[in-house]
Design brief:
422 residues; mainly alpha; Growth Hormone, Chain: A; 77% helix
Length: 422
């Protein structure tokens, strides 16, 4: 079944309707991926599982979230955005609802790790990049920044709510909330997100009436298309530098801070609700920072932006465990770190699109996101293991901060096409 071919209202501006629906889908996906950070302590109390076992499920979910990306991008090209995202939302809903019946660590790994990881991986950065490339010609960097910022908004909206629900009504309430939200979004995507502007008689926003889109992917071999793009990209230095930088990006954000920040703050005397509030503050300022990063990416050298983002992030992570964890110092860190949380996405996506084109760009960006989530999984699991071994998070934060400084240097080594760099 294909999207209706009748012309939708608003003309080219219908692209913003599509972007709004996708924003909320990305928001819900981000809320699901953030939830394990809230569930860590309640699950320890409810089941007696150790920190390393719970972190393992979070790490597997984060890794599959990234690994699914390039295949999801290929599925969107072969089978359509609407069908891919609708099925992914239903998978997320079913997996989190099923988790309320779990009684062993492997149940948590299967539901919040494997199934939810695959579902959220289809509703992630590759979705934003695919929608922006397909529906916008003008202001691509700004729109990608806005869609990327939905992950911050997901943290802002859901984490304090999840912390409250878990503390007052039990962790199962969190699972049912995620299941209900993702289930409710599925029909909205089905009704309001056509696969392309051409399918409803439009051209992308900002395009001339005679605009001709890049040739689509022929056939239905999503796996072949995904690996084909990887094969072409993997022969270039640009791909591996972007991959390495995004490995560190994941290591320093949702893998470490997103998964372990609440537990760290709880060990330093804050309540779980207060700690989740800090992540919400990060979410507020990341909404600003990532949107601003998209605006800057349309105007300045993305390599220099990446250098600044990674260097400042690395220094802030090294500082945090040595701070006094007072209300002032934590809020300063939350504001500063929030502005930089995922500001790296717009410049990274632009560099991928410049080097690999509109057709391969989203697929290659999906593979770069695999690096992001591999780094995040490394931090989520590794920080749990280091905590078990040393009894704290100092080593994890210093190592992650050092990696951020290395990523800053790597970013300056990326070469751009001569026309783009001019």
């Amino acid at each position: 079944m294909t999207a209706p071919t009748r012309r939708r209202p608003f003309g080219q501006n219908y692209a913003f309707v599509v972007a709004a629906v996708i924003f909320f889908a990305l928001l819900a996906s981000a809320g699901l991926r953030a939830a394990p950070g809230v569930l860590m302590l309640p699950l320890e109390r409810a089941f007696g599982w150790d920190r390393a076992s719970i972190s393992m499920a979070a790490g597997i979910g984060i890794f599959l979230y990234g690994l699914t990306g390039p295949f999801a991008a290929a599925l969107m090209q072969s089978f359509g955005i609407r069908r891919t995202v609708t099925l992914a939302l239903l998978l997320m809903s079913g997996a989190t609802a099923l988790s309320t019946l779990m009684a062993a660590p492997w149940h948590y790994i299967a539901t919040w790790g494997v199934l939810s990881g695959v579902g959220t991986g289809a509703v992630a950065g590759v979705l934003g990049a695919t929608v922006v490339n397909r529906w916008f010609v003008r202001n691509r960097g700004l729109m990608l920044g806005l869609l990327t910022a939905s992950t911050a908004t997901g943290t802002l909206v859901f984490l304090p709510l999840f912390a409250y629900l878990a503390s007052e009504f039990g962790w199962q309430t969190v699972a049912f909330t995620v299941a209900g939200v993702t289930f409710a979004l599925a029909p909205l995507v089905w009704l309001f997100v056509p696969d392309s502007p051409a399918s409803i008689g439009l051209v992308p926003y900002g395009a001339a009436d005679d605009y001709v889109p890049a040739p689509g992917v022929s056939g239905r071999n999503a796996i072949g298309n995904a690996f084909g793009a990887l094969g072409r990209a993997s022969t270039t230095q640009t791909f591996w530098l972007l991959f390495a930088g995004f490995f560190v990006c994941g290591l320093t954000t949702n893998g470490l801070v997103g998964t372990h920040m609440i537990a760290l703050c709880s060990e330093r005397g804050l309540t779980q609700l207060e700690a989740s509030g800090l992540l919400a503050v990060m979410g507020i300022f990341d909404l600003i920072g990532t949107t601003a990063s998209g605006w800057l990416t349309d105007r300045y050298d993305p390599r220099k932006l990446l250098f600044a983002y990674y260097a400042l992030r690395g220094l802030s992570l090294i500082y945090l465990p040595f701070s006094d964890f007072s209300l002032i110092s934590l809020n300063v860190f939350a504001v500063f770190y929030g502005l930089d949380w995922i500001a790296t996405v717009p410049p990274t996506a632009r560099l991928a699109n410049e080097r690999f084109g509109d057709r391969d760009g989203p697929l290659v960006f999906g593979w770069v996101l695999v690096g992001h989530q591999a780094g995040a999984a490394t931090a989520a699991i590794g920080a749990g293991l280091l905590h078990t071994e040393f009894g704290g998070y100092l080593e994890a934060f210093v190592l992650a901060g050092t990696a951020g400084i290395i990523a800053a240097i790597i970013s300056l080594l990326i070469q751009r096409p001569a026309v783009a760099a001019a």
